[in-house]
């Protein structure tokens, strides 16, 4: 056992500095926020969605186009036109619209439906024009294009625009969701503390930390590939984690005040105990996020860096900004805390719950585990992919364009496959068109260097399982036979093929990712708690909560529960949820078990340590979880399907982790472990570094 020391720790000295120089600490944070914000506004951002998958077939198709048809590197937009009496009767209006579009900024070319073969439906009621855009066309110019098209509609002529640039321009970042989450968090904190001022302290800490990180990420995007969805995802995690960490420290501060300490000493003890847990928990979140680097996927590296940076900044705010705020507003907060103290017995209900769980540990373990296992089962049938316009909300212009094209040309027109051939392509079209699941195929179009390309239209929608089966059939059966006869080589690409490739790459690398994240986190827990069983228990339970949350996401978004549009789960959502949830689960694990460890070191009574650990942390863990749940759950209101899936997955995971695992399963398991919970083999004990979350209460209190 470590011998206590009276020397103040680094966190104690940091808290003392923030208390003495509270106005300086606040001023520095405000200056940093202002400087980063202004600089990022002047410099701008360079977000780039890197979906490259080196070595995959779909990526080879993209590289072939870049080499042999560089003029086609820009993206395209479809202007879909429909009229019950036939689009040809509206030719003058359509030509006028397309002429206006051709003069707009960043429009490289326009193909009229009346001069493009196959661009008018067989019954003549639906047609589409293809608008080629310059690479990296600004979103505001795409929105102007949308407005121009919609202005031309009327008198029976329907105009809708489709394509990835339109979808990206239409989707918002979820600002309303963030505001709703913060407001709900404020309500919970006011209810918890009975004071608007006390409730505002954790929120101000989180907002300043997240605000500083937003600008920093925009600047970093110039040197690191950062996807366009990184900022809203970073805010989703940052707001929840920032409030969470500040609340954990603030709750310990309140406990120290109620135990009779003065404000300065209470803040320093809170930083030296809960602050240590926050730093350790934050490090586990960062490790889990950086574990995404093991996947080697470009689209995830930037997200991992952005969210890890956010967690790092929130940790810094929790241990520097929070003590300063407690000094500025401490007197009023203390008065309110002490006035409410006489009306409640601290931790009594949680102590009773822990006692009930310890009396029936097997039942308290088996029933919740069975529930989590049942919720995890749907995740086994999860279908990964990428959302398209067919999963957009009804009423959006991209969804209208999708539906009109499917109505006029068949469902496969919204997700054509691209077949690239190098060498003989003479017998390719016949072989492809005779394949089950193919509605039609265009004649091969020559590019350069003996390379040609052909569009293949499935007879099913892009999100249908039949379309993905068609990709596999072409790649493994049809095209290899043609290649054997002709000596040519063939590749299958397109959005559906890319989704399959991405899902395959993720599945292949997932075991390494899980091993890295779980292994490093388990080693950290073993070093802190000097235990072999606690890290193993934490890893298993965290995996169980993640499985259950992914099962719920599959039920809602994959199988259409509650009337949600059925479709695939975004291919990178499961690994992101895994990384974030695994790290966040460690937050509550560390905070709860650290308090148990405190009591174990003090009394050597395992049952007592479990009861007092839950009594001391149950209230703050569930309150912090409730805040996380409303912050994450608010993103279900976002118009972006990806953010909806993230929000639901994270909210469900935190709900199950805090209210089921930490309040029921962990106390039951710790009761069954008994003293064995704190056992560590001697060899491993000597090999692991000694990391402490508890510091002797006699730490220096002088400044």
Automatic annotation (TrEMBL):
It is found in: Cell membrane. Residues 232-328 form the SSD domain. Keywords: Cell membrane, Membrane, Transmembrane, Transmembrane helix. Gene3D superfamilies: Multidrug efflux transporter AcrB transmembrane domain. Its main location: membrane. It comes from the Bacteria. The chain crosses the membrane at residues 180-199, 206-224, 230-251, 278-297, 303-330, 361-380, 510-529, 541-565, 571-594, 614-636, 648-673. It is a multi-pass membrane protein. PANTHER family: MEMBRANE PROTEIN MJ1562-RELATED, MEMBRANE PROTEIN SCO6666-RELATED. Belongs to the resistance-nodulation-cell division (RND) (TC 2.A.6) family. MmpL subfamily. This is MMPL family transporter.
